[in-house]
Specification:
The chain has helices at residues 18-34, 61-79, 97-104, 128-136, 148-166, 170-177, and strands spanning 9-13, 37-44, 88-94, 111-115, 141-144. The chain is an alpha/beta fold.
């Protein structure tokens, strides 16, 4: 393959969420299998305290530093000291996630990898970033579904909320009973 400037690459969006970690893992597998360079991009939104675009002032160091730390921690968690087969680079930029990812993955031979969130009943992607990338990218886009663990956690959380609303929450009933606990009759003892 050519030098670093001409080497094919995989661009992956990273936010620190469980869904983006799954996308990063998948991008690592794709990079290992294809011999491509992996560019992990964390896009953070400019705050109201940031200087206006085009001005000579830079963004607050704390915001940029926090984004870079989150990206470094995420890359370390996923690849750590065990994965030397993949050439990984990180980039933290301010902007809008979908637009920035599409601008970075602008070469025809790039592969853009994003987490997609799960689908709703009408089969629309929940993730606006994935939807933007699919409709605007000039390169192939791989949208990675969430991990089964994330779906299980969301299902459990939703079930707890449903149970609370119906009054079928035994733990909540014990809490409401207070320190004295349930009342017994003579036949129970």
């Amino acid at each position: 393959m050519g030098g670093p400037a001409t080497q094919r690459r995989i661009v992956v969006g990273v936010s620190g969420s469980l869904n983006s970690v799954v996308a990063l893992q998948r991008a690592g597998v794709e990079a290992r299998l294809s011999g491509r360079r992996l560019l992990a991009v964390l896009v953070w939104r400019p705050k109201d305290t940031d200087p206006p675009r085009g001005s000579a002032a830079s963004a607050p160091k704390g915001t940029r530093r926090a984004a870079m730390r989150l990206l470094a921690d995420t890359l370390n968690d996923v690849f750590g000291a065990t994965d030397h087969d993949v050439q990984v680079e990180g980039l933290a930029m301010s902007g809008t996630a979908g637009r920035t990812l599409v601008q970075i993955a602008r070469r025809d031979d790039d592969l853009l990898v994003v987490g997609g969130g799960h689908r709703r009943r009408l089969r629309r992607w929940r993730s606006p970033v994935a939807r933007y990338c699919l409709t605007h990218a000039s390169c192939p886009v791989l949208v990675v579904p969430p991990s089964p663990l994330q779906l299980d956690l969301e299902a459990m959380t939703g079930r707890k909320l449903l149970l609370r609303g119906r009054g079928d929450d035994p733990v909540g009933e014990l809490r409401r009973a207070g320190p004295r606990g349930p009342e017994y009759t003579d036949g129970d003892r």
